[in-house]
Amino acid sequence: MHFSTTSAALAAAALLSTVSATPTNVIRAATTTFPTAAGTSHLSAPKVISGTFDGKMVRFDRGSGACTGQTEGGDADAVFQVADGGHLKNVIIGADQAEGVHCMGSCTIENVWWENVCEDALTIKQKSGTSYVIGGGAKGADDKVIQHNGGGTVSIKNFYVSNFGKLYRSCGNCGTQYERHVIIDGVTADNGKLLVGINSNYGDTATITNSCLKSTVKEVCEEFKGNNNGDEPTKISTGISKSCIYTAKGVATC
User: Fold this and answer.
1) Which of 163, 199, 230, 243 is deepest in the core (most CB within 10 A)?
2) Which range is the signal sequence, renumbered to this chain (predicted)?
3) Are 189 and 167 spatial neighbours (Cβ–Cβ below 8 Å)?
């Protein structure tokens, strides 16, 4: 992992102060133990969530053969579509799915576990505002866990990720691009290529605190030059900067 010396702690505190507290009364401690499913529900179409849906730790999927690897899917391929302001909690997403959860606007994803990510675990489509990922975890993502296609901020707290390509990626080549921000706090990561990828040419920032990365995580934060024409984005730099805001103490090897 790459660390360098900077005054990032002050910048991180300033950015964190601009985001309201996570909308929950109980913040779970990060755990690396995946829960046992209370049952399994095979969905023939995405389950649309408005308001709050408590899955009571049932496993939801889209049936045998739903996963098509890294083939790009759409909203119709998701297990859950969460409407603007929706709150999905206490759910297990099974391996038989192409797209896990699509947030159509600002959403709260609480204690949701992806047993084996197919294309993406969570896709954020809000144009503005803040979406919250609180607790839960994901494993087995060949590429991205959280794909941020819309704008605004994503807050990820007390999340566990294992065997992954990227925990978070700001879309590098979407047709409509936004300034995006991600705040990561209390994450535990194991066996991954990259924790965070952002497009600094669009003003993206990543703030990472209180997180524990195993030595098998290769990089903490990378900056890219994104585009809106579908081309592969160009990597600019790796490590702490004015856009990748963290310290060696705040992102420790564990």
Assistant:
1) 199
2) 1-21
3) yes
Place of tokens 């999905």: 88
For residues 252 and 4, give the distance between their C-alpha atoms in angstroms, rounded to a whole number. Answer: 13
pTM for the full predicted model: 0.89
Structure-token pair, residue 211: 């997180």
Say whether 80 sits in a helix, a strand or coil: strand
Contact 11, 30 (CB under 8 A): no
Rounded Cα–Cα distance for residues 138 and 116 (Å): 7
- What pLDDT score was predicted for residue 72? 72
Contact 96, 61 (CB under 8 A): yes
For 147-160, write each residue's pLDDT tens digit. Answer: 999 999 999 999 99
Q: Residue length, the chain?
A: 254
Which ranges of the chain have pLDDT less than 70?
1-29
By the 10 Å C-beta count (0-12 exposed, 13-18 middle, 19+ buried), 243 is classed as: buried
Type of residue at 176: T
| Range list of β-strands (E), the chain | 40-42, 47-49, 52-61, 78-82, 87-93, 99-103, 108-114, 120-124, 130-134, 137-148, 152-157, 160-170, 180-185, 188-199, 205-209, 211-213, 217-225, 234-238, 244-245, 251-253
Q: In DSSP terms, which residues pair with 83 in a beta bridge?
A: none
Residue with tokens 């990626």: 169
Cα distances (angstroms) measured from residue 153 to each of 21, 133, 136, 191, 250: 13, 11, 19, 26, 20
* Calpha distance 17→20 (Å, rounded): 7
Number of Cβ atoms within 10 Å of the Cβ of 22: 18
Contact 79, 109 (CB under 8 A): no
